[in-house]
Amino acid sequence: MRNTKLLATPALILALTACNMAPKYVRPELPVPETTAAAGLAGPGEGAAGTVMTVSAETAWHDFFVDPRLTRVLQMALDNNRDLRIALANVEQARAQYRVQRADLLPTVGVTGSAAYQDQPFAGSTGGAVSGRTDTYSASAGVSAWEIDLFGRIRNLSSAAQQEFFASVENRNAAQTALIAEVATAWLTMAADQERLRIAHDLEQAFGQTLELTRARFAKGIASELEVRQAQTSYDQARADIAASTTRVAQDRNALDLLAGTALTASDLPSGFPETDVTLDELPAELPSELLLNRPDIVAAEHRLRAANANIGAARAAFFPRISLTAALGSMSLGLSNLFGSGSDYWTVTPSADLTIFDFGRNTGNLRYSRATYDAMVATYEKSVQSGFREVADALARRATMADELEAQVSLRDAARSAYRLSDARFRAGVDGFLVTLDSQRTVYSAEQSLIAARLNRATNMVEIYRAIGGGLN
């Protein structure tokens, strides 16, 4: 019977410590349609080296970005970018806070030792203590004010800290995904600006030849001064565009240096605008909305929602008594040599209970605050899902018409080149006037610039889809 009671006591304590006042967590339903649809998006594209790849949140970045120069810059950014280092430090801070909170679940064990020296020469004359010197030594180990978590207050606080730690990890992953997309976009932008600079140089040469020819015709009385001035304006515009493009290329490099966290060399920079350096092949016309649940920012929002749910449990537990335990086991003697001798040991156990009767609404206010925070986290989570859904849908909608736009721009550029060659030949033969040729030159220049912009939009759209889906971190 005695053994049964001894077993029943720890069983009762374990049963009580299993209490949890937190509501059962249920993930909110996705407040978006089941699929992200983009009309007109269908069929695989032709990727680098003819490969076919389906991009998802598990696709590693080095499998998506295949240009060796770009991958080197991306790796430099992952190793040296200061914003990413800050995000990593935030993770370590959250990890440390979780460990601090989790430590409250277990008792803090400490050891103490003390010595007391006392000399009472007149103690014996009063009938009290024996006169003379008395040396007392003691040593003990024990726990002080350890709260027994009967109602789950500490466990819920520890769970909330753990979820905040998990959220910080996902925030770091989101920062990495955003950094990869930002570096890739900056690298592609520099490649496009380099191409614009090359075209400006080519057009400057063509406009210069036209200007010299017009001046020669003017000297012979064949062309008017108006034609010379018009040719001069086109030539000067090309020169101005060269200066502006040179500035943009230099600024693009500065931006890449900042993102990479180090100075890049010429071998790391783009050597021309890539045609297949970034691939996004065989994307279906519809993507399931559940794919958004892999986005780091949405995962982080759900962890914060779980933390808010745990905080409700901690606020509820505050209405119940807090039971603490202080205990010590040690030894005491009048001589140091007998400190751990037979008969010198002692122990003390001091349980205590604390229950607030009147707090003038403090616990109620904390509980209402926790519930309101949970409601806010639900709305934040749902908004994160909706924002992610829109980003993916917008990127897919842009991609749906990208092929047609690019094809039209290529055809426009080719037609403009052909028209320029014909008008130039007719101008030199004296069939057409100078204005026709000048207009053709300007049309070619505009078409070349528009084609570069279309190619850049196509490449950055691929990067945006990769980022919107959640990207790969490996």
UniProtKB/TrEMBL annotation:
<keyword id="KW-0472">Membrane</keyword>
<keyword id="KW-0564">Palmitate</keyword>
<protein>
    <submittedName>
        <fullName>Transporter</fullName>
    </submittedName>
</protein>
<dbReference type="InterPro" id="IPR003423">
    <property type="entry name" value="OMP_efflux"/>
</dbReference>
<dbReference type="GO" id="GO:0015562">
    <property type="term" value="F:efflux transmembrane transporter activity"/>
</dbReference>
<dbReference type="InterPro" id="IPR010131">
    <property type="entry name" value="MdtP/NodT-like"/>
</dbReference>
<keyword id="KW-0614">Plasmid</keyword>
<dbReference type="Pfam" id="PF02321">
    <property type="entry name" value="OEP"/>
</dbReference>
<comment type="similarity">
    <text>Belongs to the outer membrane factor (OMF) (TC 1.B.17) family.</text>
</comment>
<feature type="signal peptide">
    <location>
        <begin position="1"/>
        <end position="21"/>
    </location>
</feature>
<dbReference type="GO" id="GO:0005886">
    <property type="term" value="C:plasma membrane"/>
</dbReference>
<keyword id="KW-1134">Transmembrane beta strand</keyword>
<keyword id="KW-0175">Coiled coil</keyword>
<keyword id="KW-0732">Signal</keyword>
<keyword id="KW-0812">Transmembrane</keyword>
<feature type="coiled-coil region">
    <location>
        <begin position="74"/>
        <end position="101"/>
    </location>
</feature>
<keyword id="KW-0449">Lipoprotein</keyword>
